[in-house]
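Forwarding the complex inputs:
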Amino acid sequence: MRDVYVIGVGMTKFGNFPTWPGVKEMGEEACFNAMKDANVTPKDIEAGYCGVVGGIGRSQGPLAGNLAMKQVGVAGVPITRCENGCASSSTAFREAWIAVAAGLYDVALVLGVEKMAGLPTRMMLKAMSQGSDMEIEGAMGMTFPGVFGMVAMRHMHNYGTTREQLALVSVKNHHNATMNPHAHYPKEVTVEKVLGSPMIAYPLSLLDCCPVSDGAAAAVIASGDVARKYTDTPIKILTAVQKSGTFLDTLDISTFDITVRAAKEAYRAARLEPKDIDLAEVHDCFTIAEILHNEDLGFFKKGEGGKAVEEGETEINGKVTINASGGLLAKGHPVGATGVAQICELVWQLRGEAGARQVDGAEIGLAHCMGNFSHGDGGTCNITILKR
Amino acid sequence: MRDVYVIGVGMTKFGNFPTWPGVKEMGEEACFNAMKDANVTPKDIEAGYCGVVGGIGRSQGPLAGNLAMKQVGVAGVPITRCENGCASSSTAFREAWIAVAAGLYDVALVLGVEKMAGLPTRMMLKAMSQGSDMEIEGAMGMTFPGVFGMVAMRHMHNYGTTREQLALVSVKNHHNATMNPHAHYPKEVTVEKVLGSPMIAYPLSLLDCCPVSDGAAAAVIASGDVARKYTDTPIKILTAVQKSGTFLDTLDISTFDITVRAAKEAYRAARLEPKDIDLAEVHDCFTIAEILHNEDLGFFKKGEGGKAVEEGETEINGKVTINASGGLLAKGHPVGATGVAQICELVWQLRGEAGARQVDGAEIGLAHCMGNFSHGDGGTCNITILKR
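Prediction (whole assembly, two chains):
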């Protein structure tokens, strides 16, 4: 398999746009920005991959990629929708990487997009219930906040993680978001404000949970043979690993076996260790998730993720910068867009273009994205490692 | 890219099963049958790809592949949902082919599945509207029967295709289905019965339209390096080509430019001509579609597709056997399952295991699958060519 590089990225601002723009217009903006950044024209694009969950509010799943890409003149070529819940566009990114690495295409466009705003809660719950086993967990009302509330309780029980440590994740990520022009909630919050926000699923309150967002993100990738034709700053894809859950094998919900397995394979493939990672975008759908995944990714010993946040080790230029973008918690979480939005942040950081939130001397970045959750384990976990 | 082979296939019977089995159980049956046919165990499977549209009745899109594959012990490995409307599982098959050809995996499992029965018409129309531009064509009520009614009218106007010729496609495919134990409607129909069935969208009546079906189909593919370890009759994938629509470029709806472009590339890649194809499974969502696609695939001159049916050239052991399985019209059309179900039929035929509907001496088979339709052109067209 050939070397593959990210040669351009682009995003929309994340936010809530109940009426406009829609999937097509947001997709258009992200694709246009990425293609401009990559210095490619529509005729350079040999394939398109789109990550979108769809079926949520005005979010069209089928054809969303085709409709959005057509807006920027990309049509006729193979366009494939990949859907793996919140990991949809990290999956799409990986499939594009496989196809370019295989030699089938030299240049491919990857889009992640979602339009979630304005959906009544009842319909949102129904749509989201398909991210677990609809016939069992869906019917039982086993929502994601419910799952992660239990995860938090177990982590606190096992390791003495505190409610304040959870809140500090939200404080850090909201602070980072104030420096990110694409963020949905670029506002400082305090521990008191997090603790005082409405309770969602004990011990998680509103500001422990990522918001429902609209947005799009895109990336152009190219084979090593042609990457430098387009850019002087190609960012190398060291590996893109994907795992699915094993179901019922996870007896201890304070660790996600799926992340442990994916990380192990990713580090081996990239010939790296956790200590080599300068910054990571981690799937912080809830505050507890960031703490738990930081441990499972090997950045901290099991049980020490809460303490690490408290001691500032995950802040920008800490031991390992986690979610410099603001993460899902504050940058926002338009589900289908999140995977590629993580790639955008890594690329900007590795090119030294992240402005006020720049991680000094960033050379290696890791993106961790998860989708769905069923029978006690994650549905999908994608880990992508990029190098300057 | 390496040579890749289909080493096993399996299906459920297609039909309407309003309460049971669901996506998980149907997926399980198809996967089990394909894995048994391929002589593989769950631990041999290195990746799973699932084509499912979802959001239709009890059809779960997200996680459907994971849930179904877990039933046969396939878990932990990367499992990716691909969705391209009615071409979802032909897209999944192609992505699996790319990944195995790339050298990333040696053995992969591909599943197509859909559960459509029992959905109220209003909700079905809403679900299906996402297969076109939801904001424009969906809002206008531009349904697929409406589109293909117009296509039929244009074809009749341009080429003198007759209403009876359309009906004969349905007669032929229903006849073929009587010899297929997996078919949804294994019943003979006559031209009179087709013409007398309720009008849906002029000139198409009920028996000109494919049914709403439930079902699943699966295939196991393997690299040339390992295929013969599992089977003595590997079927070679000569090529798998995918195109998307160019939108608004099709001024004449009596031809589908997307099929013409995909076919041209497929024949070039496989170093074949249309006359080399012994049998084809063609996307006959409506009777007119088979006639039109047979022309666009190069089996007959433009405008002569109707006459070819009338003269028996598309019957089993005719000039080119079209839809020996009964096709979408009579085998049924559980949308996500159709692409892989076409592969199943080709594999059985090429191995000489198709029983009463066997095409004599079949050596090369072609599958043509389309998904979505927007702005005057198809959303996705997949063409796969297999060789004994």
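Chain A touches chain B through 54 residues (CB under 8 Å).
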